[in-house]
Design brief:
The chain has helices at residues 17-24, 58-66, 86-94, 105-115, 129-139, 144-158, 173-189, and strands at 6-10, 32-34, 38-39, 54-55, 70-77, 80-85, 98-102, 119-125, 166-169. With 190 residues, the protein is α/β, with parallel strands linked by helices. The two termini are 15 Å apart.
C-alpha cells in the first residue's frame, strides 16, 4: 500500500489556521488525519488527552526525547515543549492516510529536512500584522500583553515564510480554504 504524505501547516497564532484545517479535513477523499503532538503544557478547558495532544509531564517528555520517540520537538514557549511522535506518523502514514502536522515554524523546517519529497509545507499568513492584531483583539480570549507577545512572535514566524513550499494569505477565508485544499490534493495525488 502507498504510504501517506506529511502535510505540514504552520501559521502565526490568529491566522485562521485551525479554521482552515478543520474545514479541509472534512473532505474524506483526502484521507487526512491530524498528527496529535505530545506536549508538557497543561490541558486547557475542553481539551482531552489523546484528542488535542498527548499531555505528558516534563519528565515524560524528557524521556520521550531520550528514547528517540520524537521526530522533532521545540520549546515553543518558555518551558513548554511540543513534539511530533514517531509512532503517530507511523500510525497515520503506514496505512495510507495523510498526516496533517500543525507545528511551529522551526519544527516545520526540521520535518521538511527529514522527509524531503514525502512532505509538503504550507505557511498560512495573515494579510498584515495589523489585521492579525485586530483578529486577536476581537477573539477576546487574551489580555493586551499576551496579544502583544503573540504579535511579536508572529513577526518572527513570518520571517520563515519563504522556507515553505507554499504560502497562502488568509484574507478571504473561503479563498484560503480553497487554495490550501488544492495544494493538498495536488500533493497527495502526485
Ligand atoms: P497551543 O499551545 O496553542 O496548542 O500550541 C502552540 C504552538 O505549538 C502552535 O503554534 C503549534 O503549531 C505548536 N505545536 C503544536 N504541536 C507541535 C509539535 O509537535 N511540534 C512543534 N514544533 N510545534 C508544535
Amino acid at each position: 500500500m502507498k504510504r501517506g504524505h506529511l502535510i505540514i501547516v504552520s501559521a502565526p497564532s490568529g491566522s485562521g489556521k485551525s479554521t482552515i484545517i478543520n474545514e479541509i479535513i472534512k473532505d474524506e477523499s483526502l484521507r487526512l488525519q491530524f498528527s496529535i503532538s505530545a506536549t508538557n503544557r497543561p490541558p486547557r478547558r475542553g481539551e482531552a488527552d489523546g484528542v488535542n495532544y498527548y499531555f505528558l509531564s516534563t519528565e515524560q517528555f524528557k524521556a520521550a526525547i531520550e528514547n528517540d520517540e520524537l521526530i522533532e520537538y521545540e520549546e515553543v514557549y518558555p518551558g513548554r515543549y511540543y513534539g511530533t511522535l514517531r509512532k503517530e506518523i507511523e500510525r497515520i502514514c503506514g496505512n495510507g492516510n495523510n498526516a496533517i502536522l500543525d507545528i511551529d515554524v522551526k519544527g516545520a523546517v526540521n520535518v521538511m529536512k527529514q522527509f524531503g519529497a514525502d512532505a509538503t509545507s504550507i505557511f498560512i499568513k495573515p494579510p498584515s500584522i495589523d489585521a492579525l492584531r485586530h483578529r486577536l483583539l476581537s477573539r477576546g480570549t487574551e489580555e493586551v500583553e499576551a496579544i502583544n507577545q503573540r504579535v511579536s512572535k508572529a513577526e518572527y514566524e513570518l520571517s520563515f515564510a519563504d522556507r515553505f513550499a507554499h504560502v497562502v494569505v488568509n484574507d478571504v477565508l473561503r479563498t484560503a480554504i480553497d487554495e490550501v485544499h488544492a495544494i493538498i490534493k495536488e500533493c497527495i495525488e502526485k
